[in-house]
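Q: what sequence does this backbone want?
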């Protein structure tokens, strides 16, 4: 069962953790490449700020973004800002998101996100937590997948396994973490079943497109090629 209030508290902690790490940089550090191809750290911070505002739109019944082109242009516009401006924007937009989620509302209602995707309002705080936590890793500042909370790792594997379930490009795939937790995904492509196992952070890294899966073990076939998120 989704506990949106607990997720909001976890999101706040994750945001503070990211801001604390980034506060140790200088302006030159913001312009350094992130782990995401073609994006600097400034791009990642700008995206996090604009995503928070977009989710405020969702909670207030407006389109998440005016258009894909506007979303991308806003990130490019804001990516080269000085560190203090970037961090102030991330904090201010996080506070706006917190205020929007504190307003009375029906958490069981369905809301519309990007590209026609819909979800329960109660799942949006976790979606935002995902944005903050994974993009913290993407900043390449010493915070990695292995540093993510265990609960977060398991839940995001749940989410991504569900996302790829039945996907026409992914064969039937069983996932097993070293601690014994299991998931199933894929099933829309020929082949399989493929068994994939390894540490939970490595499973998450592969599913989320952050690692190539070379640290994982496979049986029954090669490691499936996952479509981009």
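A:
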């Amino acid at each position: 069962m989704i506990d949106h209030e607990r997720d909001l508290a976890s999101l706040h902690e994750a945001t503070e953790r990211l801001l604390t790490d980034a506060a140790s940089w200088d302006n030159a550090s913001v312009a350094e490449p992130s782990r995401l191809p073609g994006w600097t750290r400034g791009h990642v911070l700008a995206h996090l700020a604009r995503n928070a505002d977009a989710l405020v739109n969702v909670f207030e019944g407006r389109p998440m973004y005016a258009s894909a082109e506007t979303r991308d242009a806003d990130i490019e516009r804001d990516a080269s800002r000085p560190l203090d401006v970037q961090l102030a924007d991330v904090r201010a937009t996080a506070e706006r998101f917190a205020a929007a989620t504190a307003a009375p509302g029906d958490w069981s209602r369905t809301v519309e996100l990007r590209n026609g995707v819909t979800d329960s309002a109660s799942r949006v705080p976790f979606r935002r937590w995902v944005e903050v936590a994974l993009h913290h890793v993407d900043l390449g500042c010493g915070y990695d997948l292995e540093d993510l909370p265990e609960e977060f790792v398991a839940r995001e594997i749940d989410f991504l396994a569900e996302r790829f379930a039945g996907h026409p490009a992914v064969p039937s795939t069983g996932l097993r973490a070293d601690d014994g937790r299991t998931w199933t995904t894929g099933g829309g492509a020929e082949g399989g079943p493929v068994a994939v196992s390894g540490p939970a952070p490595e499973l998450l890294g592969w599913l989320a497109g952050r690692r190539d899966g070379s640290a994982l073990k496979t049986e029954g076939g090669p490691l499936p090629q996952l479509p981009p998120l």
